[in-house]
């Protein structure tokens, strides 16, 4: 169990990035969902021991590690949002260097472990290609490889599917799902599909504040029989955003499709009941969090 209590982070300015965040995260997959700039990366960096919180407490397996993050590092796998590589090294050489820096033990040797990790993230074909020739998705997979080395019991991944094409993303989903069977995997993302596919529970964070902790099913259920959809003109779409609880407006074949949540008042004329998605629930939660 990873327990986070009243975590606050204030940067010089002052700028408060986290406002008393508290979470209980058990073994398995747990999602942290929020827009860019919401404080997710600050929280991940604190948990990884790269930032010191202004106040609050972090307890992992009944041990307070708030001021001793080095006790977490041997059991931690971390993929930050931005991962730096030496561009002129090959993928295999870069990964082996990272394993050496992490002090990963490999009974069969680091070269063998490097090959196994590259195969697991589908980079065997590019093992000897220079990292500067890698696509964004390939670099992300190389970062994933170093994060899972050493069989960590806590795996933190920050925006891990950025730059991955659909096939790579599905491969990564399967890998993370497998890893979450016997460890904590904390997935920080602004991509709703990541949470919908992987996380039985997730938290929503906005402006450094915890909005809610829920499940995909419960989040969707909150909008059941309350979500409506209609096709309107651009002018009417702007007007509805001022008068109704609009979750989002999207273009479909050049037409403005508005999805909105109704309360006691009936929906606008021409709107029909719609089946809520997790994206609807997320947008509604963040809208409500912003208004609170």
Could you please describe the fold and organization of this structure?
The chain has 292 residues and is an alpha/beta fold. Helix content is 33%, strand content 29%. It contains nine helices and 14 strands. The protein has helices at residues 40-47, 91-102, 110-120, 136-148, 166-179, 192-198, 216-221, 234-243, 278-291, and strands spanning 2-11, 15-25, 28-33, 55-60, 63-64, 76-79, 154-158, 184-189, 201-206, 209-214, 227-232, 245-252, 255-261, 272-273. It has a six-stranded mixed β-sheet with strand order 6-7-8-3-9-10, with helices on both faces. A hairpin with a 3-residue loop joins strand 1 (2-11) and strand 2 (15-25). The longest helix is centred in the middle third of the chain and has 14 residues, at 166-179. It is globular, with a radius of gyration of 21 Å. The model has no long low-confidence stretch (mean pLDDT 90).
The number of helical elements comes to 9
Largest sheet: 6 strands, mixed
> Which shape, going by the Cα principal axes?
globular
Distance between the termini: 30 Å
Tell me the fraction of residues in β-strands, as a range: 25-35%
Secondary-structure element pattern, one letter each? EEEHEEEHHHEHEHEEHEHEEEH
How are the strands of the biggest sheet laid out side by side? 6-7-8-3-9-10
Fraction of residues in H or I helices: 25-40%
Poorly predicted regions are none
Based on DSSP secondary structure assignment, what is the total number of beta strands?
14
Query: If you compute it from the alpha carbons, what radius of gyration comes out, rounded to the nearest whole angstrom?
Result: 21 Å
Q: Which structural class is indicated by helix and strand composition?
A: alpha/beta
Q: Whole-number average pLDDT? A: 90
């Amino acid at each position: 169990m990873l327990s986070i209590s009243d975590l606050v982070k204030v940067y010089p300015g002052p700028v408060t990035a986290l406002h008393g965040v508290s979470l209980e995260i058990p073994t398995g997959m747990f999602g942290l969902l929020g827009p860019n700039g919401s404080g997710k990366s600050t929280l991940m960096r604190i948990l990884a021991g790269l930032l010191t919180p202004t106040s609050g407490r972090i307890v992992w397996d009944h041990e307070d590690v708030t001021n001793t993050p080095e006790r977490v590092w041997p059991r931690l796998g971390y993929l930050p949002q931005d991962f730096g590589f030496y561009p002129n090294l090959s993928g295999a050489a870069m990964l082996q260097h990272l394993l050496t820096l992490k002090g990963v033990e490999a009974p069969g040797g680091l070269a063998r472990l490097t090959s196994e990790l590259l195969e697991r993230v589908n980079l065997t074909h590019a093992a000897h290609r220079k990292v500067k020739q890698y696509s964004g998705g390939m670099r992300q997979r190389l970062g994933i490889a170093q994060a899972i080395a050493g069989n960590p019991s806590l795996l933190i991944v920050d925006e891990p599917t950025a730059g991955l094409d659909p096939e790579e993303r599905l491969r990564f989903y399967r890998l993370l799902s497998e890893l979450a069977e016997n460890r904590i995997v904390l997935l920080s993302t602004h991509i709703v599909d990541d949470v919908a596919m992987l996380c039985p529970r997730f938290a929503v964070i906005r402006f450094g504040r915890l909005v809610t902790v829920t499940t995909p099913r419960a989040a969707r259920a909150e909008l059941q029989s309350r979500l409506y959809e209609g096709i309107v003109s651009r002018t009417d779409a702007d007007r509805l955003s001022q008068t109704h609880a609009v979750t989002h407006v999207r273009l479909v074949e050049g037409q403005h499709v508005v999805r909105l949540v109704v309360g006691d008042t009936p929906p606008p004329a021409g709107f029909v009941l719609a089946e809520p998605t997790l994206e609807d629930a997320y947008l509604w939660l963040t809208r409500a969090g912003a208004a609170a």
